[in-house]
Amino acid sequence: MPTPPSPAAAPRTDRPPVRIGALVPLSRPGWVEAGRHLLAGLELAVRETNEGGGIGGRPVELAVRDTAADPERAAAAVDELADLGVVALVGEYHSVVARAAATRADALGLPFLCSSAVLDALTDGPTERVARLAPPQSRGWRTYADFLLDAGHSRIAVATQPSVYWASGARVLRDHLAARGGCVVELDTRELSPTALCDALVARRATALLLLVGHPEPAVPIVEAVRRDRRLTEVLIGAPAGQPEFAEWAALLGADGAGIPFLRYLPERLGPLGARVGAALRRQLDVAPSFVAFEGYDTGITLAEALRRHGVDRVSLAESWPEIAVEGTRGRIRFSRTPGIDVWQWVGAPLQVVDRDPAAPEHFRVLRSA
Predict the structure, then answer these.
(1) What pTM did the predictor assign?
(2) Which of 68, 100, 189, 358 is the most exposed place for a label (fewest CB within 10 A)?
(3) CA distance linking residue 238 with residue 141, whole number of Å
(4) Which mean pLDDT values do the consecutive 10-residue runs of the chain (370 residues) have?
(5) From CA 193, how far away is CA 187, in angstroms rounded?
(6) Residue-wise over 283-300: b if at least 16 C-beta within 10 A, else e?
């Protein structure tokens, strides 16, 4: 069901609102916690924009649609929001869903600022209308592969599920590791139970297992099985897609969920803006904000700046991406063209490999920065 518009402390005015469509996973099988953090960041940015006078005195209004991690549902939402008259789209966490939304938005001439999805091929071809804040999957997962090699892991097993996103990630890992003497063994979770997967890890002599699967199923049962198998005490479990970032992971796995490296998109230290926004997001969410919440906020203030400078016309807005320069919570945001990427890309997005500290699972350790 559509979520009611979010006025977010709109300024008093008789002028019509500037409507922005927001795509967010808020129900299963979507990653609901990620969706909640993404929406919190967007709402905070809109609220601050409205407290500052809106866009030319007009209030900003979010029209939120729940994608539930369903590409077809997302594409239908894009059609609905375009008919509603939104000036642009923002959001989405799941890469395959964002790809469906970006493709449909591009076809309709609707600008789309993608917050969190990392799939390199976000559209079918070059487009001027789509821009993205998160780093491309190829950059992040190559960094993760380098981390594994530096830690002494060259024989890597990946637990997989069918998905364009997981297949793309496995390909990046395989190609990058193979060029450096490593190898990747794929273990299909449709065919292997968690116990059988443990047996396969022993038989294949893998020293690391990466979870290229959904959360909480089957990721959580796999972690539990590996942690309890005495043959695998030296095997590193990894989750490049970021599952351990969220509180739900720690709640479900406790100490078993610590020491599992993952990718996140934060700098080692937040500046004054990031610290202020982080405190506001913590109050709003009642938990520590994830990197996804910061992505949501940065999306909101970036689009607001584009609207102030270039107006609410869709064509003008789509042409504005290369001219934008905004101080975000995680660095200065500028978009440019990147080889192999068909959308406008923030190339300076921060990237880390981190894990939850086994001695204090509520705290994160930075293992590598790029």
Answers:
(1) 0.95
(2) 358
(3) 12
(4) 52 82 97 97 98 97 98 98 98 98 98 98 96 98 98 98 96 97 97 98 98 95 98 98 95 97 96 98 97 98 97 95 97 97 97 97 95
(5) 10
(6) ebbeebbbbbbbbbbbbb
